[in-house]
Amino acid sequence: MADPPKLPTNDGTIETDMVIIGAGPVGLFAVFEAGLLGLKCHLVDNLDKIGGQCAELYPEKPIFDIPALPRCTGQELIDRLVEQAAPFNPVYHLEQQAERLTRQDDGRWQLVTSTGTTFITPNIVIAAGAGSFVPRRIPLPGAEAYEDKSLFYAVRRMADFEGKHLLIAGGGDSALDWLLNLQPLAASVTLLHRRDEFRAAPDSVAQMRELVGAGKCELIIGQIAGIEGRDGAITSVKLKTKDGEIDHPCDTVLAFFGLKMELGPIADWGLDLERNLIEVETESFETNQPGLFAIGDIITYPGKLKLILSGFHEGALMCQKAFKYARPEERLVFRYTTSSSDLHKKLGVA
Amino acid sequence: MAKVFVTDREGEQHELEGEIGWSLMEIIRENNLPIEAACGGCCACATCHVYVEPEWLAKLKAPDDDENMMLDEAFEVQDNSRLSCQIKYTAELDGIKVTLAPEF
Questions:
Q1: Helix (H, G, I), strand (E, B) or coil at A312
Q2: Euclidean distance between CA atoms A321 and A325, whole angstroms
Q3: Residue A91: which domain range?
Q4: Does A194 touch chain B if contact means CB atoms closer than 8 Å?
Q5: B34-78 pLDDT, tens per residue?
Q6: B3-100: what fold?
Q7: Is ipTM over 0.90?
Q8: Is the pLDDT of residue A85 over 80?
Q9: A284: which of A89, A196, A321, B37 fits an S-S bond (Cβ 3.0–4.6 Å)?
């Protein structure tokens, strides 16, 4: 049986030179550029893996416009960037969203994530692409009244589903994995999917079909059309099927409609936004707040192109200014990786 | 000039110029109609979901596996649901009518 996904962690309080929000390609290359200047980085990402859109949306799709890489897949690009950043020992804090940002009396930032990890740092870099990945919610009027009470988009505690009459919607790995894990606990389980084909792992699909055959799980082909209940408690769900609308009694719904990207808490950080993009100046990619930078797809400036290569350039320039905040007493000398023995030492090749 | 007719979520119809060789999503997006198209057109999300007028549906190539899998993540999917990034606009589609699906 599939293992339930691991639960998020709180990594304590951490002082560091730079915290990068978003572990996509642009954030990863910023780790490398910062590392060359001797700056230590931590990264925060809401996904359960490194790589952002490249890893989540198109891991197997080829990319052709990375300089000197005529062709590579999204995942291959991420693997290479992780390898390139590795000599600088970045720390990845996954499955948590950057939430509260406050300026301390000493001028440094305090950043707290959704799981309570706390960072103290002079430099925050927003490399969040199109925003953080969050579960796509059911767009029915009134659905939010049930959210986290009887309607769920993720499983935080398996015990919450014990003895429930559970409806799971979706046809991917999340839906099938949780179906297999929760079926022994729940009073009854129904799987709802819009067609009788599933993109989940064939083995999970086979196990699901076995449960259905044994009468331990009901499979309905259709879509959710309405939710009935009161005070946050679902009593039944209206389902649209080939044979018309039916009322399906259940008390708990677990819906998996994939992930969407949204700006999230960053929208409330007092940044200058234009159409949900952060305005920066193009010398150092600093926002309207000193020590708060933004790079990659999430920014806008005259002539901006949403290309990975543009984000690499933006990260390199950003680090020059971030160095001054992290090492105000030191002078920065510009060096090349081809010739500098100091850089070779940092890269671990000396 | 070839045309595309797009009904927005308020029910208003817009007459757009169809650019041969673009995807339907690109035509809709470049005319500043509200279509998210989060993944940029590589069939990796479902945020360019449209309903195609039935008389035009037959002129389109049937959705492939990738498109069907992404449609699984959309809401209010109907028999005439398509991802507009997967529809290449050709001269034969002059006059095609689509409606933007609900956003979520």
A1: helix
A2: 7
A3: 13-134+260-347
A4: yes
A5: 998 888 888 888 899 999 999 999 999 999 999 999 999 898 999
A6: Ubiquitin-like (UB roll) (3.10.20)
A7: no
A8: yes
A9: A321
